[in-house]
Design goal:
The complex is a heterodimer of chains A (296) and B (258). In chain A, 30% of the residues lie in helices and 22% in strands. With 296 residues, chain A is an alpha/beta fold. Chain A has two domains: 210 residues, Glutaconate Coenzyme A-transferase (3-Layer(aba) Sandwich), CATH 3.40.1080.10; 47 residues, no CATH class. In chain A, strand 4, helix 4 and strand 5 form a beta-alpha-beta unit. Chain B has a ten-stranded mixed sheet with strand order 4-3-2-1-5-10-12-13-14-15, sandwiched between helices. The chains are: A alpha/beta (296), B alpha/beta (258). At the A-B interface, helix 4, helix 5 and helix 6 of A face helix 3, strand 9, helix 4, helix 5 and helix 6 of B.
Chain lengths: 296, 258
């Protein structure tokens, strides 16, 4: 059996400028931040980022990696908006494909199921269709004479055809994984991580801890292994790799750190100092700086 | 805010009652309130006249009962898992009755939480459309606006996130079949769309607020019925539940300015 272990830097090494990259997690929860920092350190640029957005989107905007973001929101949860995202948008520095968060889910699902679109009511009547003029409607082929029609309001009904959101690569962060590429989520919500991987050509899991194949049952229930190895190409161990976002039961959100991250965005010199200390550094140095910060 | 002896309750408490009333007779549906006051309203409704309401823990589970608003996660009793993947199943099944916030709301019930100004390069970037487009065409939806001004109650919102009546009708049966914008609750009053033209109507004004106050804080022409009444006062039982059980730390007072 293939040993899929790799490193965060090697994952970045497999990516290219201009790619469309899906990031797992939701808001400021279980984001693959170790990978995001590695991406910020790289010379990649012009990326399209597809995410239930949090500080992953903010950091990539702040470091000039992003051409376009596909999202339904960008939030830090306990802080309503990521300030870097706000600044990038208000200065017109990034394109956005903003859709309903359920449409987003259907786009990933369509890609994972290899169909060109999935129909939905979500988006009808809203400005999501105005601000994304390439989005199309689809008319149901089931009319009033169809034996399958349940309600006449749905005869020939027009719905949004949410297009498949194909990803060149996707990266998610789990609580545990094994060497074969199975990923285990011990926190209460898997979000859409399996779907991000399903929608992608190159699929990577970063994780708190890699165990031997077959040993995930010792870490938690098998029902939490929602990422099976058919969905993964590489697994990188990155302890603390979701910091400062929430990753229970391993750790909660580092609210004090998140506040500092958000506050630093307000001033160019402050942000430069923050980035030198907490963004453009490897994981060991990052952890040392975070520990020093707590100690001081 | 201190007690107003004149009415026996504070403005925040009137707002909680107005929110609770949104879920009267709602039945066994998932309530997902955004904001402290809607969350209190949902809990109060569940403890009194709408016991079948299904509340979430704000994370990924349904919770038993209606615990105090400041209860810590470890103190909650959970009854079922409700991860986001499952939330969409509930949204699209219609078994939900939601109250979202609105940065802008307009005459026909469009809501904006996406951006102020031109969407391509906003003057002010907001959180994003989130689930508002899908919520508003799939299940009953109401809105909570803690700062009712001419900047929040506008003639036409900048980016239609939650869909109002006129836009839903224009989009056709796919949008209208389950569309139901029920109420808008603000710090000044309660509004609905139960008019012939499905435009916003004053339903009640909170104690201490005049119709003129509301008209002056609204950018468009509200329908003002002759029988517009004061928002009902809390019962002594409701007030006691609110003050001693659900919100003894008065977090409700932090959400509104007046």
């Amino acid at each position: 059996m293939a040993d899929k272990r790799t490193t965060v830097d090697d994952i970045v090494g497999e990516l290219e400028s201009g790619m469309t990259i899906g990031i797992g997690g939701w808001g400021s929860r279980r984001k693959p931040m170790s990978f995001i920092r590695a991406l910020c350190r790289s010379d990649l640029t012009d990326l399209t980022v597809v995410a239930y957005g949090g500080p992953d989107v903010g950091l990539l905007c702040a470091t000039g990696k992003v051409r376009k973001v596909v999202c339904g929101f960008v939030t830090l949860d306990s802080i309503a908006l990521d300030p870097h995202w706000r600044a990038a948008r208000q200065h017109g520095q990034v394109e956005v494909m903003e859709v309903d968060e359920g449409m987003f889910f259907q786009g990933l699902q369509a890609a994972a199921w290899r169909v060109p679109f999935l129909p939905t009511r979500a988006g009808l009547g809203s400005d999501v269709l105005r601000i994304n003029p390439d989005l199309k409607l689809v008319r149901s082929p089931y009319g009033a004479d169809s034996p399958y029609l349940r309600d006449e309001a749905d005869a020939d009904v027009e719905l949004v055809a949410m297009p498949a959101l194909h990803l060149d690569a996707a990266v998610v962060h789990t609580n545990r994984a094994d060497t074969a590429g199975n990923g285990q989520i011990l926190s209460p919500d898997a979000f859409f991580d399996p779907l991000f991987l399903g929608a992608a050509d190159r699929r990577f899991v970063t994780t708190e801890k890699v165990v031997a194949n077959g040993a995930l049952v010792d870490e938690g229930p098998l029902s939490g292994v929602v990422i099976h190895r058919l969905l993964t190409d590489g697994v990188a161990e990155a302890p603390g790799g979701a910091h400062f976002t929430a990753n229970p039961p391993d750790y909660g959100r580092d609210e004090a750190f998140q506040k500092e991250y958000a506050a630093a965005a307000g001033d160019a010199a402050e942000w430069e100092a923050f980035a030198q200390r907490y963004v453009f550094v490897g994981d060991d140095e990052y952890r040392a700086h975070v520990d020093e910060r707590v100690a001081s | 805010m201190s007690d107003s002896p004149e009415f026996g309750c504070t403005r925040a408490e009137s707002c909680v009652i107005a929110c609770a009333e949104v879920w009267r007779d709602a039945g066994e549906v998932m309530v997902s309130p955004f904001g402290t006051i809607p969350a209190l309203g949902a809990r109060l409704a569940k403890l009194t006249f709408s016991p079948d309401l299904v509340l979430t823990d704000g994370e990924a589970a349904l919770m038993v009962g209606a615990p105090p608003i400041s209860a810590k996660p470890a103190e909650l009793v959970r009854e079922a898992a409700m991860p986001y993947r499952t939330v969409f199943d509930v949204v699209w099944s219609g078994r939900r009755n939601m109250m979202m916030m609105a940065s802008q709301i307009d005459r026909t019930g469009n809501q904006n939480i996406s951006a102020i100004g031109n969407h391509a390069q906003p003057k002010v970037q907001l959180v994003g459309v989130r689930g508002a487009p899908g919520n508003s065409v799939n299940h009953p939806t109401s809105y909570w606006v803690p700062d009712h001004t001419v900047r929040t109650f506008v003639e036409q919102v900048d980016v239609v996130s939650g869909v109002g009546y006129e836009r839903a009708a224009a989009a056709g049966p796919g949008a209208t079949r389950f569309h139901d914008i029920q109420r808008v609750v603000s710090n000044l009053g309660v509004f609905d769309f139960e008019t012939e033209g499905r435009t916003m109507r004053l339903r009640s004004f909170h104690p201490g607020v005049s119709v003129d106050d509301i008209v002056a804080a609204t950018s468009f022409a509200l329908v003002i019925p002759d029988d517009a009444a004061e928002t009902r006062l809390p019962t002594p039982e409701e007030l006691d539940l609110l003050r001693t059980v659900l919100d003894p730390k008065a977090l409700r007072d932090r959400e509104i300015k007046s």
